[in-house]
Amino acid sequence: MAKNADKKPFARILKHLKWIATGKGYGAVLSLVYLAIITRSLGPAQYGAFSLILSTTMTLQLVLGFNVWQVLVKYGHEHIQSKDFDALACLIRFCTIIDLLTASLGILVVALILWLGSDALGMTGDLAWQTFGYAVVILLSIRNVPRGMLRLQCEFKLSFMAESVVPTVKFAGSLLAVLIHPSVSTFLWTWAAGELASTLVFWVVARRKFRHQFGRPQGRRWYRAWRENDGLPSLLVATNIGETAYAAGQQLPVLLIGFFAGTAEAGLYRLAHQLTQTLSVIAGFINLASYTEMAYLHAKDGLQKIKPLFIRIVLISLGTAAVLLPVIIFLGKPLLLLMSGPQFLGAYPFLLVLGLAAAMQIVSVTSESLLMAAGRSKTLIAIRLIGTAVLLAMLFVLLNGFGAIGAAWARALTEAISLGLILGACYLILRKVKPAS
């Protein structure tokens, strides 16, 4: 960050966005291609089964995990400002151990689920073992720590070079699977290979860059990070609740639709969900760049310089959301036909409702950066708990009353409530900032 210190905050965000958009944009385009390959190869029912396996594994990964890259970025900037590189090394090791422990717990939970419930899930012995193998690879693909190390140094170019390995391997593997033997198992192992390859690249690049910048500081007393970083426990809890809320919002509807309406409906919902997430990928761009910059500004100057930056970012996200909705309305059906064929046109109603949810999510996700950077993790915890509770209640009512489309409306209504709460919390924080004299 030091090398860019002479630039204005918004200019630095635009610089970060260039690399984020390049990496994420590349992944978004490839994801549309391999999504088309897999849906046309498997059909609605088999794609639905594949989706349920992915959603189950991802739910466990998110519910049990912590988004430690946010912890690294927030407290790492403070240690860099004070030139306490040993404390930075302790923080990195602490976050790594947290990730390893949660991954180990996740593997035990997956083993227990498959041992007790493989018959209820409709899995044969071979598919259950393959699902377990896939889950082990995914849970051990720990990338949050090296991702945080690179973002801490504003190395978005290197970060998204490593990130791009995932869609590249999935794309190449999907083409190979079509030529050899397109099946749920083949695509599962392709997805696992992409995650594992990206993890290896992340660690090699992050370790090399860190040593070049900071040398070899001592991190043996990693357990002290818990006490040395003020507010770390609550921020960790906030990231876990955030991941749990994300899992509830993104993956739980797929699982419940699969249970109540069958795998084909679950496949249609997931296809629509993936398309809206791909089309709204700009939200992730803005969030990653703005959080890194806001954490830096807060460590350096407090809230004083964050307010004008935050207002500009929210206006950009509102404009992006306004563009997204007509794109989904008018281009959604042709895109579904082009990608997956007429057998997946049933996903269009889901696409419309989830597109509305995605538009609101763009604004809420970018606004969350202020709460995290300003250390208001408890506020964010409360908002996310409320959002998760609302989603569960809405799913119970609307899924029973309206079927699979009710789950999509539950997502949209939950996003609306969460957005209102987040913007309200941001307003209360910024209202206390005194104008610069």
Automatic annotation (TrEMBL):
<keyword id="KW-0472">Membrane</keyword>
<keyword id="KW-1133">Transmembrane helix</keyword>
<dbReference type="InterPro" id="IPR002797">
    <property type="entry name" value="Polysacc_synth"/>
</dbReference>
<feature type="transmembrane region" description="Helical">
    <location>
        <begin position="49"/>
        <end position="69"/>
    </location>
</feature>
<dbReference type="GO" id="GO:0005886">
    <property type="term" value="C:plasma membrane"/>
</dbReference>
<dbReference type="InterPro" id="IPR050833">
    <property type="entry name" value="Poly_Biosynth_Transport"/>
</dbReference>
<protein>
    <recommendedName>
        <fullName>Lipopolysaccharide biosynthesis protein</fullName>
    </recommendedName>
</protein>
<feature type="transmembrane region" description="Helical">
    <location>
        <begin position="127"/>
        <end position="146"/>
    </location>
</feature>
<feature type="transmembrane region" description="Helical">
    <location>
        <begin position="408"/>
        <end position="430"/>
    </location>
</feature>
<feature type="transmembrane region" description="Helical">
    <location>
        <begin position="21"/>
        <end position="43"/>
    </location>
</feature>
<dbReference type="Pfam" id="PF01943">
    <property type="entry name" value="Polysacc_synt"/>
</dbReference>
<keyword id="KW-0812">Transmembrane</keyword>
<feature type="transmembrane region" description="Helical">
    <location>
        <begin position="309"/>
        <end position="331"/>
    </location>
</feature>
<feature type="transmembrane region" description="Helical">
    <location>
        <begin position="90"/>
        <end position="115"/>
    </location>
</feature>
<feature type="transmembrane region" description="Helical">
    <location>
        <begin position="381"/>
        <end position="402"/>
    </location>
</feature>
<keyword id="KW-1003">Cell membrane</keyword>
<feature type="transmembrane region" description="Helical">
    <location>
        <begin position="158"/>
        <end position="180"/>
    </location>
</feature>
<feature type="transmembrane region" description="Helical">
    <location>
        <begin position="351"/>
        <end position="374"/>
    </location>
</feature>
<feature type="transmembrane region" description="Helical">
    <location>
        <begin position="186"/>
        <end position="206"/>
    </location>
</feature>
